[in-house]
Amino acid sequence: MNEDNTNWGQSVTGVVIRENKVLLARHTYGVGIGKLIIPGGYVNYGETPQDAWYIAFRADYISGVAKSEGDENNEVLWIEIDEALKRDDVPELTKKLIESAISKKEGLLLTEYNGSTNHDPKSLYCINEGSHEV
């Protein structure tokens, strides 16, 4: 990770669900060491969404094999949703995000993203070029 390009004030995460299972990664450092969390990370300058401190998405599984990157997590698992919500090694924030992703009433809102960006600072997908100061 290029730490000079990392915006430490903004994070993004995704709740990925497939066949009633949720994708979780075992964290390897800090207060979350050993905990199973939904995949995520800090936002680099110039990446979208740029104007959010912490944004969570419900992501649809399309294809591929989930793999640990071997640094910030040491394993990734597909776990039954009901089991994940009961486990002691799944933090409360992760449980709340999973519950939001599966909620029919008050869950995460589907927001289409087609890869384009704009420069409206109120937009979810704004790139604030040249504003890399911390």
| CATH-assigned fold name | Nucleoside Triphosphate Pyrophosphohydrolase
Could you tell me the radius of gyration in angstroms?
Answer: 16 Å
CATH homologous superfamily label: Nucleoside Triphosphate Pyrophosphohydrolase
Give the class-level CATH name.
Alpha Beta
Low-confidence stretches: 121-134
Q: How many domains would you count in the coordinates? A: 1
Q: What is the count of helical runs?
A: 2
Mean of pLDDT: 74
Describe this structure in words.
Helix content is 13%, strand content 31%. The relative contact order is 0.24. A hairpin with a 2-residue loop joins strand 1 (6-18) and strand 2. The protein has a single domain, classed as Nucleoside Triphosphate Pyrophosphohydrolase (Alpha-Beta Complex). The longest helix is centred in the C-terminal third of the chain and has 11 residues, at 92-102. The chain is built from two helices and six strands. By secondary structure, the protein is α+β, with helices and mostly antiparallel strands. It is globular and about 40 Å long. Strands 1, 2, 3, 4, 5 and 6 form a six-stranded mixed β-sheet that branches.
Throw out a few tags for this protein.
134 residues, alpha+beta, Nucleoside Triphosphate Pyrophosphohydrolase, globular, disordered C terminus
